[in-house]
Structures are given as C-alpha cells and as structure tokens.
Amino acid sequence: LGEILEKRLGRGKFQEICEKVMSLPEFEIDESRYELRRDGDVVAVEPKVFDLICFLTANPNRLVTKDELIDNVWAGRIVSDAALASAVKAARRAIGDDDVKTSRIKTVRGRGFRMDLEAAASATPAANNAPFFVQPSFAVLVPKDANWSNKARHRVGHAMTRVPFVTVAAPRVLDALASLEPEVLVENLGLGFALDLRAISDGETLQLDCTLFDTSTGMTIWSHVTPEFNASTGIDKVLTEISVRLEPQLVRAVYGALSGQSPSTQDPRALALHALGTMSLKGWNRPAFDEAEAILNNALRINPDVAFARGALALIMALGPEVGMCQPSSARREEAIAHADRAIELDGYSPLVLGYAGCALCDAGQGLRGKTVLERALSLDDGNPQAMAALGTQLIREGDISGGISLIRRAIANAPQDNTRAVWRSILAMALSHAGDLDTALAEAKLAVEADDRTHLSRTVLAVVHLARGEVDAAQSAWLDAKRVTPDLTADEMSGLIGARMTAEIRALA
Question: Is 427:389 a contact under the CB 8 Å cutoff?
C-alpha cells in the first residue's frame, strides 16, 4: 500500500502525509524522534509512557479500552492492572497533569481511558492536515484455464463485496487482464489484498489451496486447504466454505492495516471499519460494544452522512438491550430508530445498510417496517446473512418459529466464521427450545458457546436449554460461566432475550 500511495501521490507529498507529528496544548510530540517537547525543550519520559501518550493522542476524545492499549502499546504482552495504572499516572505527570480530576487523560472506570482534547492538531502546515483514506481493495486470483475459475472468481468476489468500503475487482476486468502475471496484475489494479486460489488434484478429486496475502509486502495473512471435492458437483459448497472462512480474515487484515495509520483514523470510513473489526474480532461483550459505539459516534461527528456508520450504530444501540449488553431505555430505542431512518434515507439501495437498519428497527419495536426493509435487502442480495438472520429473528418474535428457524439456518450457512455466529446460534437454540427440539437446541447452544469465548449471551442460552432439559447442575455451571464473562449482568438485561420468567429461574441457580 505504501508503494502504491507513493506512486500516486509523489514521494514528497507521501512523506509529508506520513510524518507522525502531533500536538498537545503546550506540548509537541514527535514520533519520528521519540521526543516529547515543551516550548522546544525535551521532557524526559520512559519509552512505554511515551508510546502510551502517542496512542492516546492519536485517538482523542474516545474510549480506548485496556485491551486496546495492551495490544497497541505493549504488543499484546501480559500487563498487570497495577503496571497499566502506573504508566497512565506517569503519562499524566509527563504532560503536566498532576491533578487526576482535571487531567486530560480520563479514567473510564471498568472500561479504559480517554484523552480529552479540544482538537488533535498537527504541528505540520494546515494544508497537510486533511485526513486521507485509501479504500482497501481486493481481488480473487485464479488459474487461467481451470474449469472452476470463473465461478470461483464470481462467487468469492461477490461475497467479499459485503465487507463495507472494500472495493472488489470486477470479474470481467480480471478476465481481460488474465494474461498478465499476478504481480503485474496487482500493480496495474493497485490492489491491497488478494486471494490466490490454486488446485491440488489427484486426477479424480480436487482441493483448493487458498492464500490471502498483502500485495504491498507479499506476506501471507491467511491460508486454508479445502476438503477434497468433485469439481463438477461439489464446487458450490466449497466456494461457500471459502467465503465464510475468508471474510473475517479480510476484515482482520483491513483492521490491522488501518490500525497503524494515524492519518486515516480521522476519516469516518476508516473509523467505521475499525468499529466493524472491533465487533467481528473482539467478541460480543460490553467493552467491545462500548468501543464500537464510541468509534461510530466519532465517525458521525466527522461526517454525519456515512450511511453504513448510521446503520451500524442503529444496530448496536437497538440490539444491545436485547442481548444484555446495556440497560434498555426508551431514549436509546428512539435514537436507534432515528439512526436507522437516516441510514435508509442516505443509502436505501445498499443491502448491507438495509440489513443493519432493518434489524435495528425490528429490535427497537418497529417489526412491520423492519421486516419490509429486511425483505428489500434480500431482494437486492438474496445471500445477505445479516438480513436473513434478522428477518428470521423477527419471524420468531411473531410466532412463526419454523419459518424463523429455516431463515436463521440459511444465515449461519452463509455467515462469516466470526463472533457473530455466537449470536445467531444462540437465537436459533432458543427457538428450537421453544419448538420442543431440546436435543438440537443443546447442540446449537454448545456451538454458540464455542463461537465466542467472551460473551455471556451464549452461556445464558446454554443454561436455559439445560434447565428446559431438567439438567440443573449443567444449567448452573453454564450460568456461572456467563457471570464470569459479565459479573454484573442484570435481570432487565437478560429478559430481553430469554424472558422474565426464565430469567428469574436462571438467576435463582446461583
């Protein structure tokens, strides 16, 4: 990506944009020299404390979770709460904020920290301050003459168009450039990421060797070898399997590429992608919900007309109370509906936006309208798993259990293999339990627990299913595991998913 930007912008402009020089009031932070300066004089600061100040300053006015700090400042190493608190205290002291109450580095109890700044101004000239965002791009590279190549390029490429703000090279364009060597193709299209598909054959059956790589470095991000299949009869199932495995890996790659680029953090599209990555990769839990909501609010402060950010925020705000991620309130519900309305107004032809907004409307109590929006999303993209799962959930609310179960099963089959599956399998398990199919409900609840180790949702549902089966000890064990994840889970937060009566029975287990 760096080489592509340098070619497009010119070396001088590229270097100007990439300079990491930031300002705090009264201070200047120069990352290129690892210096914190006050009135031109260098302030002594330990390396990790300096890195902490840099990261908080590059992410101003938003919640930065403890996990996010550890991942970015300490490279994921184990850091005790005491060591983290000590580093934050030293950072406050370094920027002259001795009083905790008035410090610009705020502690958000139980969540993380926030650097409160009026503006994160750059020390470079104003002309260089405009944020830039290189939209991530992707292509499927296949052998020239294989009989499965065209189908693979179309099916996998189409599935990746569901990743917001990622541009996917059109099959016809790739067909026209099929004679080029892969490295020349990459250079011509300015790609960021590519999936290389190669066949492994013993003459009767095939396997596909899949490699997702970063085109700027040539380094492998993810690899996978499919099970053996018959090319004439089994290719559709294999391509679906590749797509659902690939999508979370592409999201992870884009999320990682954007995380280290401070200029892009002020572009609302980049922030929306960060929020998507947070939900996909960090699990369905309160810290991830809080972080994603804060990021999306920041994106909309910068540009209130980003439809995806509106739809995603509507979904988080409406769905959160339904799955125990926050306390329900009429104000939150009305705000979610307003965001959904605006998302549809901004882009009523995007299946992704419609899927998010329709789900939010259903969760906020506007089921009739939400169903219409979701049906429209599926008319535009009949493989959209988000819209399928949301519509299935609404059918279950309305009493059409079998219809809802069928749609949610289809959604799971087409869904990316990320933490979202924990939510949909949990809803499916509850529906199966209501339908009296307790054996299948138990199997789905266990799969939901496996899908995400950091959510109380699936563990609560597992407790419900065990209780319905009369397995009190197993139900108690599952409930204790749910409280391990979210110790302060309230009855109001639980009842949105499992109902008030079952909530009382589950809470009586502890």
Answer: yes
Cα-flanking dihedrals φ and ψ of residue 41, to 5°?
Answer: -95, 135
Q: What is the mean predicted confidence (pLDDT) over 407-414?
A: 94
CB of 309 closer than 8 Å to CB of 268: yes
Read off the pLDDT of residues 368-377 as tens digits, 9 standing for 90 and up: 999 999 999 9
State residue 243 phi and psi, 5-degree precision.
Answer: -65, -45
CA gap 3, 9 in Å, rounded:
10
Strand ordering across the sheet containing 41-43: 21-24, 27-30, 35-38, 41-43
For the chain, what percent of residues have pLDDT higher than 90?
39
Within a 10 A sphere around the Cβ of 431, how many other Cβ atoms? 21
The rounded distance, in Å, linking the Cα atoms of 459 and 447 is: 10
- What average pLDDT does this structure show over 191-204? 83
Residue with tokens 């199932």: 237
Are the beta carbons of 160 and 52 closer than 8 angstroms? no
pLDDT in tens, 290-340: 889 998 998 898 889 999 999 999 999 998 888 888 888 899 999 999 999
Cβ atoms of residues 374 and 358 within 8 Å: yes
Strand partners, 208: 199
Answer for the pair 69, 52: CB distance below 8 angstroms, yes or no: yes
E strand spans, 413-494: none
With b for 16 or more beta-carbon neighbours within 10 A and e for fewer, the 327-361 pattern comes to: eeeeebbebbbebbbbbbebbeebbbbbbbbbbbb
Q: How far apart are CA 269 and CA 400, in angstroms?
A: 38
pLDDT value at residue 61: 82
Task: Report the pLDDT value the prediction gives residue 175, as an integer from 0 to 100.
Answer: 74
Phi first, then psi: give them for residue 302, nearest 5 degrees: -75, -45
Q: Among 84, 106, 96, which residue's Cα sits nearest to residue 36?
A: 96
pLDDT mean over 130-141: 67
Cβ atoms of 244 and 285 closer than 8 Å: no
CA 415 – CA 473 distance, rounded (Å): 33
Q: How many CB atoms lie within 10 A of CB 219?
A: 8
d(C-alpha 318, C-alpha 449), whole Å: 23
Give the whole-angstrom CA distance, residue 223 versus residue 211.
4
- 3-class secondary structure, 447: helix
pTM of the prediction? 0.69
Reported as half-sphere exposure (CB side, CA atoms, 13 A), residue 96 has a value of 10
Q: Residue 171: helix, strand or coil by DSSP? A: helix
Average pLDDT over residues 170-187: 70
Closest CA to 405 of 363, 440, 374: 440
Q: How many other CB atoms are found less than 10 A from the CB of residue 111?
A: 16
